[in-house]
Amino acid sequence: MLIIGHRDVRHVLEGQEDAVLALVGDTYRLHEAGRTAVPHSVFLRFPDSPRDRIIGLPAYAGGEQPAAGMKWIASFPGNVARGKERASAAILLNSMEDGGPRACVEASVISARRTAASAALAAVQLVTEPEPYGIALVGCGPINREVLRFVKAALPSIREVVVFDLDADRAADFAARAGEGHPDLRFVLTESAQDALGAHQLVSLATTAGEPHMDLSACAPGATVLHVSLRDLTVDAILGAQNVVDDADHVCRERTSLHLAEQATGGREFIDASIGELLSGESGFRRDPERVAVFSPFGLGVLDIALSQWVYNACEREEFGVRVEGFLP
Questions:
Q1: Matching PANTHER family, A to Z (predicted)?
Q2: Secondary structure (3-state) at 221
Q3: Strand ranges in the chain using DSSP code E only, listed in sequence order
Q4: What's the pLDDT band for 17 if we cut at 50, 70, 90?
């Protein structure tokens, strides 16, 4: 059993944005082609603390190097006020030869970067500007920090970043820290989410909202909204937009905005395409430059497994991680 800790994961992923974008894109194509197995996530909730949850995401990725395993990720929103990260995660990879566990991988960075790469790929497919100048980030946590990293890699024309968070100090700290990593970008703080929505045609929502609280009336025609946190937008906002998802069966669950829209309408006709269809060129989807497009990724466990396998391979080559002998009988 190889134990791969946070420091080693971060090391092997450093500067690998293009490789991660390519891997996530390839995995979406595999999923679209039916070469993955992605059961519904399992949600462990707690009667005495309903905001907290731990999610299990089992998955299998086919392709040239098949991989299987499970991500176990905890989301405790109260951690933020205590100065801790909201989410923590570990991934168990299994051998495709005998099924035995082969690695335990610290997964907070993997989870954040596969999410951000997914959003960046959608942005490339959906933006209506030939060379987008800016992006607005609503929610100043680690997910939008990674979204910025990958959007900048995928859309190098980005020059301005507008940020908003309910905690103004957190937004200011986010801008200062992100500015150190992106000295070529200009950061602007706004006083409201509506100001952020109207600032640029590319917007990323990554909040801890548990219920819809936002419409898209402030967005410019043709805006693209990366709805990473899944529960920000009202049903009317979803129904008024062009909607792209990672997987309709997964995203229409657990009271996401799209799940509520499905309940309100009795169907999923408001979903226009999947990201896998767009990347594979198999969709009849046409981007309407006058409408807002919303990308809502539930977060498929197969992305975590594929990226964890990539990290595992790198650690094996470079002899990173801690090998535990005698773990198995």
A1: KETIMINE REDUCTASE MU-CRYSTALLIN
A2: coil
A3: 2-4, 36-37, 42-45, 53-61, 67-75, 87-94, 101-106, 134-138, 160-164, 186-189, 202-205, 224-227, 242-245, 271-274, 293-296, 322-323
A4: very high
d(CA 132, CA 124): 10
Q: Sign of the CA dihedral 205, 207, 210, 211?
A: negative
- Using one digit for the tens of pLDDT, what is the confidence trace for 148-166? 999 999 999 999 999 999 9
Domain segments of the chain: what residues? 2-110+301-323, 126-296
- Over its C-alpha atoms, the chain yields an Rg (Å, rounded) of 19
Q: What is the pLDDT of residues 244-288, one digit of tens each?
A: 999 999 999 989 999 999 999 999 999 999 999 999 998 889 999
Out of 3.20.10.10, 3.40.50.720, 3.20.20.150, 3.30.1330.30, the CATH code matching 126-296 is: 3.40.50.720
As a CATH number, domain 2-110+301-323 is 3.30.1780.10
Mean pLDDT, residues 178-189 taken together = 96
Q: Which two tokens stand for residue 302?
A: 């197969």
Residues 6 or more apart whose CB falls under 8 angstroms from that of 172 comprise: 189
